[in-house]
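new request in #modeling-help
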Amino acid sequence: MAETKLKIGIVGGSGYTGGELLRVLLQHPNAEIVAVTSRQYKGKNVAKVHPNLRGATNIKFIEPQDLPKVDVLFTGLPHGTVMDQVEHFTSQAERVLDLSSDFRLKSPEDYVTWYKHEHTKQEFLKDFVYGMPELHREEIKDAKWVAVPGCTATSAILPLKPLVDNFKISTVIVDAKVGSSAGGASYNLSTHHPERSGVVRSFKPTGHRHTAEMIQELGLPTEAINFSPHAVELIRGILATCHVFIEGDYDEKDVWQAYLGAYKDEPFIRMIKERGGIYRFPEPKLVAGTNLCDIGFEKDERTGRLVVMAAIDNLMKGAAGQAVQCFNVMHGLEETTGLNSLGFHPY
Amino acid sequence: MAETKLKIGIVGGSGYTGGELLRVLLQHPNAEIVAVTSRQYKGKNVAKVHPNLRGATNIKFIEPQDLPKVDVLFTGLPHGTVMDQVEHFTSQAERVLDLSSDFRLKSPEDYVTWYKHEHTKQEFLKDFVYGMPELHREEIKDAKWVAVPGCTATSAILPLKPLVDNFKISTVIVDAKVGSSAGGASYNLSTHHPERSGVVRSFKPTGHRHTAEMIQELGLPTEAINFSPHAVELIRGILATCHVFIEGDYDEKDVWQAYLGAYKDEPFIRMIKERGGIYRFPEPKLVAGTNLCDIGFEKDERTGRLVVMAAIDNLMKGAAGQAVQCFNVMHGLEETTGLNSLGFHPY
Amino acid sequence: MAETKLKIGIVGGSGYTGGELLRVLLQHPNAEIVAVTSRQYKGKNVAKVHPNLRGATNIKFIEPQDLPKVDVLFTGLPHGTVMDQVEHFTSQAERVLDLSSDFRLKSPEDYVTWYKHEHTKQEFLKDFVYGMPELHREEIKDAKWVAVPGCTATSAILPLKPLVDNFKISTVIVDAKVGSSAGGASYNLSTHHPERSGVVRSFKPTGHRHTAEMIQELGLPTEAINFSPHAVELIRGILATCHVFIEGDYDEKDVWQAYLGAYKDEPFIRMIKERGGIYRFPEPKLVAGTNLCDIGFEKDERTGRLVVMAAIDNLMKGAAGQAVQCFNVMHGLEETTGLNSLGFHPY
Amino acid sequence: MAETKLKIGIVGGSGYTGGELLRVLLQHPNAEIVAVTSRQYKGKNVAKVHPNLRGATNIKFIEPQDLPKVDVLFTGLPHGTVMDQVEHFTSQAERVLDLSSDFRLKSPEDYVTWYKHEHTKQEFLKDFVYGMPELHREEIKDAKWVAVPGCTATSAILPLKPLVDNFKISTVIVDAKVGSSAGGASYNLSTHHPERSGVVRSFKPTGHRHTAEMIQELGLPTEAINFSPHAVELIRGILATCHVFIEGDYDEKDVWQAYLGAYKDEPFIRMIKERGGIYRFPEPKLVAGTNLCDIGFEKDERTGRLVVMAAIDNLMKGAAGQAVQCFNVMHGLEETTGLNSLGFHPY
């Protein structure tokens, strides 16, 4: 299938996720980007907004209403706005990958609980597959529509799922440290450089919406999952430190077994646990620009707690990269196509 | 007592803690620094090592063996080295404040457990008071010798103690985010700028030595306390996010009561919990350069977890500032003397 | 005069300069802040906007029209808006220190050239003194109205003036590296953290307005002065690298003489030129939070060029600190009053 | 030639330049890395030192004496050490690309002047080609040995050469802002995070060794070239601000013509000069990870000065990337092979 070029549209192409989709897909051998929408920047070259694309493309933003028929549509609009146009989007494309949160949760009640509004297109929910290949690869292969997971949800679900599947877990605390690009390209006082640079800021100690995805995908009792994200000085990247309380005895070998059983053939998951050196556990810097999820762990022999660390690039495995991974799965392409460039060091 | 000047010696004055002691004490109305030791820099002006002191002093480093008799001695040597010389130090000064970890733990066995070596001067342990005025003010008033707490221990004990005293706590996870100055002035690969800048690094997921102080001071069962520090991009500061599991019902008002009861008259503790705005919880940037400990909290109504956030400057409330606070208490001075300058914004 | 408290008003107190004025004046023994205006935040405690002031004051913002009579008024409004209200401001206060650019230039034509608008209150220009005590101390002593210099102008004029006075200078290039707080508290895309963090950005290679102040104060031919500021990753601080071309022979001793002659008794100027070590030249980090201007230099023996480096904190010596220095001079106070706290290391 | 795989050796593979060579060449279709040396890390997987390579290779460091015969050898040792072994290196490989400074200067006297030592292998100097394809492509095609330019030299020579060729230039001041990776992987006090983070440090105001390369390649009188590098908060990247004084009249169109004439077909040079927006001039962030050199300019109409800004990634176009570009040229490969991945935004 190496020679097929699928026609791609990107709705909402001026944000950071849209920019990453452009970067990745422009270098993808099976993708031909034919339309990128942005109300604000219509008529402008995409490189005007995404300066890293200068010289690499002449694509110009078009208005959403001018979106042509495409093979595959990536929608990168703010949450709550994709559902309003989902009939249109699904009619314009064979396949749709939605990077908003509008179709991630299976239960419409969860939208009321976590997003504080009714879901207006509940009939679509059952046909959107949660786009995390490590958990739903077979469904994604057959899916027409994929809901790409949230970034912090990805950073928590990937390290926790094999544990949930292999141990009895009483409580999990996910304490995440998040880069500023996770907040998107819109600016406000909290993103103003003198206010944001150098912070360690607990911006949502409880009630973060991505918690709903963790609850849904992990299948633990809701009260077992606790999530607190923090803004730290970083542009790209998330480190999720998961403090896991396991019932009964276990040792580190059992944990290794759980991860190997789940992930030994996964192309984007690396287990990072070395005896020494400064890189012995996962770090966001080491996966920046890649679709990798690095996972490491250490058992606290004194208390029995298991500390699991997972690092991703929020714009890649946490958004555009995972979307393209799903795109590859959906089209029978090698799963790493367009996603195999190495990370940087130092970065 | 405003006119008395106490003669001060600082042993180990070339590190960051020594530098902060110099900065604070040079501006302290009741302190006269008469000796500062450093083997490596003997004969050099202290400003050669601490360039912020240029023009402010002509004190030169002397060798440790030339230490004269003083009223008060601050010892800022690496752990394990103060105990060897404790007879000498206590004979040279009326009062000693030790910023190392050598006399913080009451039980000699704890040194074996946490520091992996015998304590060679166990007879001194009972007379060193743990130098946290909020918990031990009366003892400090009468103390000749004070063991100044560790920085991350301070960031955890201060927010947790009122909770322990007012609630039944089953488990606590302290997930701390720490600036690079906490590692001291010695350099190695992990502190090399290209390797350290922008990291979110779990450098000691379990077994950090400061945990021992938390266990001792909080009085919870050892297995109830879990601690994981992370290096983040920051020079000064710690944010300790404490995930607290409380048995039985409680609401945020109860938590408020616990903190007010404990801290309403404390000069260096501020409760930070606002309804809106970007500064509604504690942040290290907002206490940098001060001796403050900012504490905030939010209850996770879904799971019952209490999230408590505490921010300190690791070199101030986490080291030199707390030492001077103890010094003030020991000498009947106003507790804020020399410690009341305001923080910066933006910083 | 230690006991006199002058009644102070601050117009435009919600910006970073206003915040620094508050921080410094709240700790100033001869100042009593009686009014701080902000349209946007009226009725709110100043600490809501300047969180470093929490617990230090209960002053609330008032609307500009409610400004009472005061002894001294500091005006921190955007350029172009002070001139409109200058009669009002000068009628409400014995003395006015304006931190905007509205009265810095003596020639009304310069406003047209550099600010692209007419000066509407030209009759006031002659009575505003340029508020740089190192150059205009005697005039400031007698002044009712002071125009506080621009931040990058300060960083260039202070290191260059003694050279202009002692050498024949053909050309100067001032290449400045500037922190983000110099742009103020208003946010836009260029200050959005993911866009601003880590930049080295030439945001105004030619034509920066502060050049006009350099030309005026240095008295060199206009074409001899070249200025290019750069945004770098830093919140507070400016390093001005001045590449100076001197006609005729000279050596470093001559340069030393020029600086000593001009500045040996200046309380806020430090000459920084050491033989070795990592702090041998000025750095913004080492003056952050202070009113200092550090100056160093090195002659390029190969080409004859003199490289002069000057470091200031843009919010202090570049704005609020210099304003308070002028305030001290105007009122016969010790010039360092309220401005003598030491810098930090590390910072 | 797409299927040929050249056997590659890397001497000195544990530094940052060696790591970048590995990253780029592991992804290069015509390269097969067969040997990487490091005394310190012999026997260890290269990913132990370069954690970005985890999972991508199993190559282990070998000792330098075990270096096999290869087609192409890249030498990344400290300056002064390659010349000692140059016979050995040139005997082991068909072609050698040296990333040290040992063979960049044509005149042996220049080594005495700038490096303060005799050149011990002067007979090799004439056969090493200065490896900047934009200036020496034809020579590189035929070269056996290439001396890869210095990073700051590259950032200055590329923007200045077309100006030198088209205008009469009286004086140039290159004021460079440099990331910490340019200092290499060795640590010391100046690279210790608390001391290096957030600095704006003039570490070598005059006399930087890369000046010699600028003088040699530009062909201007030595006293016309002035260079001052500054360390700023950044890991990868250089912005060279070149203040250029041109004799006689000129306008911006003439400058455009000069650049277009020289560089319009250059694959790695982009002219960046937009009317508006925040990315209107070159910035290091926008070329990080790429082999690009972005160049922009603005004429100061008031003084006649031309301000030219050039941005590169010091490890790529400033070292490993340029080396691979030369490698491509030497072997008749498409010049962008292995070097065409897009930059990141945000970064």
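bot summary: Chain C has two domains: 6-148+319-330, 152-312.
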